[in-house]
Structure formats: C-alpha cells, structure tokens
Specification:
alpha+beta, 25% helix, 141 residues, single chain, 39% strand, seven-stranded mixed β-sheet
C-alpha cells in the first residue's frame, strides 16, 4: 500500500499542475516558498487512507490531501485572492477529467471537503490558506 500512496500522490500533483489558471509556475509537494508573493503546495494528510475491501479483491480508497496557498502581505484582497485560488482549483477539478492513477486504479471522484481557511499566520505577514480534498478511487486485483 505504501508504494501505491506514492503513485497516487505523484499522479494527483501532476494533475493539479495541469490547471491552466494556476497563479504559480508549479504546485509543489509539501514545499511553500518563502520569497514569492504566492506559492502553492499539495500535502498528503497524516494517517491512513480509509478503505473498503470487497470479497472479489476490489478496494475503494479515500485518500485525503490538502492544497495550500501561501501569500505574503496583510492586504485583505490577498486573502480573498488565496481563497478564490483554492475555489478556482476546485471548480476546475469538478469540470475536467479526473486524474489518471495508472495501473488498476480508477478515480471515482475528487472533491473539496472543507472550505478554504487560514492554516497559519506568521509575524512577517505571510499567511497560509488550506483546503482539504478527498480523492476516492477503486483498485481491482
């Protein structure tokens, strides 16, 4: 299962980076840059993905992850831009093809499960906003 998580995480990151309206050059993995006015990252959430197993060997897995937007500055418009960015990503995900996870994995749905909200605020004015997504996929033996 652990190698499957790497395959899924890599496929989701590649899919998110196909978003044509992303306001950054690249959505990174667990790395929000400190010197850019805006940066984005995907982070798999801690804990195990929930899973249902069926007698025929089929598994349905729900893999949670977060998408972060980091902004520098304390302007209210920047906050709304960060929230709009995450909502725009969700809109794009809902209106486009689902990611290809390869192998015997088939994505059932990909959805935002929390509204974007502030995740961290720093003394220098940097703020991180986060939305949590669930990727539900089926895998067959």
């Amino acid at each position: 299962m652990s190698s499957e998580i790497v395959v899924v995480a890599r496929a989701v990151k590649e899919h998110l980076n196909k978003w044509p309206d992303k306001p950054v050059e690249e959505i990174k993995t667990e790395d929000l840059e400190k010197d850019l006015m805006m940066s984005m990252a995907i982070q798999p959430l801690a804990g195990n993905a929930s899973e249902k197993k069926y007698i025929d060997g089929t598994r349905v897995v729900v893999w949670p992850f977060s998408v972060y937007v980091r902004i520098i500055g304390s302007d209210e418009n920047e906050m709304f831009d960060a929230i709009a960015c995450l909502c725009g990503l969700d809109d794009w995900l809902q209106s486009n093809d689902l990611p290809d996870l390869g192998g015997n994995r088939e994505v059932q749905k990909l959805e935002m499960v929390t509204h974007p909200s502030i995740a961290a605020s720093y003394d220098d004015g940097t703020r991180d906003y986060q939305a949590i997504f669930n990727l539900t996929y089926k895998t067959r033996r």
